[in-house]
TrEMBL record:
Pfam families: AAA_33. Keywords: ATP-binding, Nucleotide-binding. It comes from the Bacteria. This is ATP-binding protein. The keyword ATP-binding applies. It comes from Thermocoleostomius sinensis A174. The lineage of its organism: Bacteria, Bacillati, Cyanobacteriota, Cyanophyceae, Oculatellales. GO terms for molecular function: ATP binding.
Length: 166
């Protein structure tokens, strides 16, 4: 059997709905859901205090997960990754997972305006008070300054989902 699972991952600003959509899609597809927030908070529960800490510990996690995810996909199971693909460098990491094995993939780009993202962050702060330190407008502005929408020349199969405040 040479059937491979599909890798689904997301690009979208903070608060755009990546985590919500990833949970929904993993249930609909009966796929394995991997959440960066869950992995990081479990493995490094006290270490992540700011954005630089997040970058440091996320980088530690990715080499192991790249191999793990590739093996799951090659076994024929689909994986939905709630990990950001919000910069060209982050997307290169996803490409390393699937490219050499010709594993099917889908990059879902949540094209959401800032006002809607900030409202999503406000709601998330209420439902997940433990995230209040990071779910702020200042953090949103800082993280958004690095955001790079995907472009067709990057070589991904991209599905665009539009949402705005209207």
């Amino acid at each position: 059997m040479n059937h491979k699972g599909i890798l689904i991952f997301f690009c979208g600003k903070m608060g755009s709905g990546k985590s919500t959509l990833s949970r929904k899609m993993s249930e609909e597809l009966n796929a394995i859901l991997l959440s960066e927030d869950e992995w990081l908070s479990t493995i490094y529960p006290e270490e992540i205090q700011n954005f630089d800490d997040y970058i440091k510990y996320s980088r530690r996690l990715k080499p192991l997960l790249k191999i793990h995810v590739r093996n799951i996909l090659k076994a024929g199971l689909s994986v939905v990754m709630d990990f950001p693909a919000n910069t060209i460098n982050q997307r290169v990491w996803f490409k390393e997972i699937f490219l050499f094995e010709n594993i099917p993939h889908k990059l879902i780009y949540l094209d959401v305006d800032d006002k809607t993202c900030l409202e999503g962050i406000r709601k998330r702060r209420q439902t997940n008070p433990e995230r209040a330190q990071f779910d702020t407008e200042d953090v949103f502005q800082h993280v958004t300054s690095f955001f790079q929408p995907p472009s067709p020349d990057e070589g991904f199969f991209i599905e665009v989902v539009h949402r705005d405040a209207s």
